[in-house]
Amino acid sequence: MKIVSKKQFRFTITIFCLIVFNLFVTIGCTKPPEKQHKVCNVDNPLTDLSWLKEKIDELHLLFQENPNLSIAIYQCKFGGEKTGFLEDRGNVGFFYTCEGETLCIMGGNAGETCSELNIVSKELIWKINN
Predict the structure, then answer these.
(1) Which pTM was predicted?
(2) Residues 111 and 55 in one domain
(3) For the purposes of burial, counting CB atoms within 10 Å of the CB of 77, is it exposed (0-12), middle (13-18) or buried (19 or more)?
(4) Predicted confidence (pLDDT) per residue in 110-120, tens digit
(5) Which residue of 8, 27, 56, 62 has the fewest CB atoms within a 10 Å radius of its CB?
(6) Do 52 and 103 reside in the same domain of the chain?
(7) How far apart are CA 96 and CA 92, in angstroms?
């Protein structure tokens, strides 16, 4: 039988405690998987909002007729925390609500009618160009 000195015993206990502490810290610090928050009460607006899906089909046809166009759709936050969608055709843009209602038009003959919306962020969610 091996005799362990008090110093060796303390050292062993200290190392053991450090290992246990690190395990607890590592386990406690792992983030739970983030919930992907819904946009307009759907998981994926491009496929789950029927009006937006139809709009993309229309834009594909428009692009086939005029392949020089660059068309994009942005998901936007405006007026506090409301969500909307901006269809950007380069020289003209249309801003829609989650329900597909046109709130305003930018550019073209309409000029700027969307400034009162207070758009605070926009994220590209769909684009087509040559």
Answers:
(1) 0.68
(2) yes
(3) middle
(4) 566 677 788 88
(5) 27
(6) yes
(7) 13
